[in-house]
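Take a minute with the sequence and fold tokens given here and flag any structure token that looks odd. Thanks in advance.
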Amino acid sequence: MKFTAIATALLAGSASAFVATKSPSSSSTALQANIAVFGASGLTAQECVYQALKDGDSVFGLTRNPANVVVPKGSGGADADKPIVDDKLTVIGGDVTNAADVAKVFENDIDGVIVALGGKTSDVGDSMLTDGTNNIISAMKAKGVKRMAVVTSIGAGDSKDQAPFAFKILMMTVMKKIFNDKNNQEKAVEESGLEYCIVRPGGLTVDAPTGVINVIDGEAGSIPRADVAQFCLEAVKDAEFPYIGKAPCISSVGGTSWVKDRSAAARGQA
């Protein structure tokens, strides 16, 4: 696989270009894989599902809302929001905090795992991310699955200083519970002994993929969910992926700082 656009650093010394092995719009020529996607109906997870299928991979997704596994807005173009119909897609309705539901995914021969869980704590509870991720880790170990990518957020773990000031205020106030959960989730992954990549994206959008993915040391800019998905797929499929055992912050073409976009458009609702 070859990538058609090489990312350039946003600021000299503050970002390094991640060069992916494929174009977002092209099919993979690499060995096809069986990919598990947890939280499969979420906006970023939809991108993971869709792009993996386009690569010829088989996808096994777990979600509480199977009907919401649809073609994503970013990569899907005119087909956005249509149901994904593919013989290589298996969607399992279930709850990631239920170990038995998680085990159903691993009844299949899984090569790599993407964890892209989300939801308001008022809907899913204060520890869903951590509890669900622990269930996934246990199931992976039981089945001998080694590689996982886990999507968290800029500001989680030791990346607090990479979030802009306004976002830090949210992290300490209205988003305190979800960031406590994200921090505990990251700790569980780091202590798992698995081949992990914790992915901390900047401001997420539902724009079309840019193919520009920068690993940022300073404040992160925005990034389409489609580009985040590409990074995650590379993390679980590339045997020599350079960020295994690390927690990179990534952004795309939105500059070196960003403001949390709470608009309907950012959530794909306009």
Summary: The chain has eight helices and eleven strands. The helical segments are 43-54, 73-76, 99-105, 121-124, 128-143, 165-172, 176-190, 225-237.
